[in-house]
Amino acid sequence: MSATSEAEVFTPFERVEQAVDWINSLIPVGIRPGLERIESMMEQLGQPQRRLKFIHVAGTNGKGSTCALLTSVLLKAGYDVGTFTSPYIEKFTNRFKYNNEDIPDETLVSIVNQLRPIVEEMAATPLGSPTMFEVSTAVAIVYYATVAYPDVVVWETGLGGRLDVTNIVTPIVSVITNVGHDHMDILGDSLEKIASEKAGIIKPGVPVITAVEQPEALAIIRQTAAERRSTLYTMNEQFKYSSVHSIENEQTFAFTGPFRNLEHVSITMNGAHQLKNASVALMVVEVLRQYMAFIVDDEPLLEGLNRAAWPGRLEMVSLEPRILLDGAHNPEGAETLAQALKDTYRYKKCHIMMGMLSTKHHRDVLRHILPLATTLIVTEPDFRKKQDAEALAGLAREMLQQESNKPEIIVEPDWHKALERLKGMTAKDDLAVVTGTLYLISDVRSYILYNKESEKGW
């Protein structure tokens, strides 16, 4: 039966909740690396991705912030910008943005009704059902190529690069922010293997910008770029930055690039790592200006960088008490958070609330967090792969036997109750930090800012 005749038996969705529920019903299909299913979907849709200009962003950490910085600059410069990112922080439609606005509910419903017969038909073939993320990616492509028509799409990988479904596109610029220890069960058990997967987004002749620093990982990216004859711009080689000034909510740096230098670039994102992300975004814009006829004057460039924000990463969501959110869900993220707590924030006591997924490197995350905590409240995210709070607390207690700083450890699996305890113990001169998986961050953020539950999800 063809997809057209199959579609006749479907009752079209009318409400956005139906469309989102249907996409989320594909979550049990799991993560299935490979491009066969997305390639088939795009072929049946007439290859809409070929009509779009993409900036493809991969990396272990910093992808979202880099995407936010690029989006902000290009919008200020007058371009229409699509931004596809994951996971979302508050609601499903967050992941498909056009000029920083979520996809309209009715548009999402219409596109899902268009894709549904294709997906159902494919599920009955040897290829099997497309995954939730594959369908979400297809939604993004159809939205941008047939409804919104942006000048450029800032396009974040989901996981890895080489076999990631977003790799269906040929971008105008590729970005690899960094390489760290995450998703090792899928991407490989060494930095070299992970770097090889992320280098898979490098396309023949397409320039690449990277801030990868580990020699073994950088060697693989360098080799891949050379094989594909792609110009590689590497931090600390072709471009670099130096910090000029840093206080909470304001960082200034000098940028040195292959085409020009900028002495005074300011961002409001916190953490030294955001200087790297901003420098990478700046280098991307320089390549777009130099080789692709993008017009980005200095005023919108500097204003765009300064105004960029990314929720859930060193985000202060309450001042009384001071509550800082940071989705530090892997060792590199935890190290970055710890550095920011030392360098950027001032406090008498630091009370940390943490919830993790069972698949993460808990020991290496705790190693960075425990030395800074006065209190550690261990909780659990509302998510199927959550790490048991008592088990995580047990690991923390074991590690503290070797530490001089011994924070009080509190176990409260219900994150609502954990948050109330955190608020109750945080005095005026203290700092409360909520960290760990973004599934916890999204719930806490929605609860504090909007007094409602988040939809959250990957």
Could you list some keywords that capture this structure?
single chain; alpha/beta; 6-stranded mixed sheet; globular
Question: Care to describe what's here?
Answer:
The chain has 16 helices and 17 strands. It is of the alpha/beta class. The strands form three sheets. An eight-stranded mixed sheet has the order 4-3-2-5-1-6-7-8, with helices on both faces. A six-stranded mixed sheet has the order 12-13-17-14-15-16, sandwiched between helices. A three-stranded antiparallel sheet has the order 9-10-11. The radius of gyration is 22 Å and the shape is globular. The two termini are 32 Å apart.
β-strand number: 17
Average pLDDT works out at 93
* Radius of gyration using CA atoms only: 22 Å
Q: N- to C-terminal separation?
A: 32 Å
Global outline = globular
Biggest beta-sheet profile: 8 strands, mixed
Uncertain runs are 1-7
Question: How would you sum up this structure in a few lines?
Answer:
This protein has 458 residues and is α/β, with parallel strands linked by helices.
Give the SSE layout.
Elements: H1 3-7, H2 16-24, H3 36-44, E1 54-58, H4 63-76, E2 81-84, E3 96-98, E4 101-102, H5 105-123, H6 132-148, E5 152-156, E6 173-176, H7 184-187, H8 191-198, E7 208-210, H9 215-227, E8 232-234, E9 240-247, E10 250-256, E11 261-267, H10 273-291, H11 298-307, E12 315-319, E13 322-326, H12 331-343, E14 350-355, H13 362-369, E15 375-380, H14 389-400, E16 408-414, H15 415-425, E17 431-436, H16 438-450
Parallel strand pairs: 1-5, 1-6, 2-5, 6-7, 7-8, 13-17, 14-15, 14-17, 15-16
Antiparallel strand pairs: 2-3, 3-4, 9-10, 10-11, 12-13
Helix pairs in contact: 2-5, 3-6, 4-10, 4-11, 5-6, 8-9, 12-13, 13-14
